[in-house]
Amino acid sequence: MELDEWGALAAEEHGLVVVATARADGSIQSSVVNAGVLAHPVTGEDVLAFVTYGPAKLGNLRRRPWTAVTARSGWRWGTVEGGVEIAGPDDPLPGVDDVATLLRAVFTAAGGTHDDWDEFDATMARDRRAAVLVTPARVYSN
Known about the structure:
Layout: H1 3-11, E1 16-22, E2 28-39, E3 46-52, H2 55-63, E4 66-73, E5 76-87, H3 99-109, H4 117-127, E6 130-141
Antiparallel strand pairs: 1-2, 1-4, 2-3, 3-6, 4-5, 5-6
């Protein structure tokens, strides 16, 4: 499976995927987010991306910047494992000067739409949400 195929699989379920991060004790923390594929804002290479404000996910990813993200549709599934970069109000990413535009791009890549982008931007800023960019090291499926 290639990253673009993973993105198409995720899109079949409205971008809903399971993100797994590692806690300090080595156990796994997982949650459901919307994710999609887009060009990295600095390198231009395709990455998996999602937006989060969850203190568990962000804390784990800040300390251990690696994740596994699984998409499924019916009995088909695909997983992307890779290193993580975070871009947000508490996580400046060199080369990213406009976090609000990046958050909109990630949200859209994950299948999101919005009727009021100013309201979207205000919510993202108020919640201190961040974009998580996953550079694939492994992509595999059944």
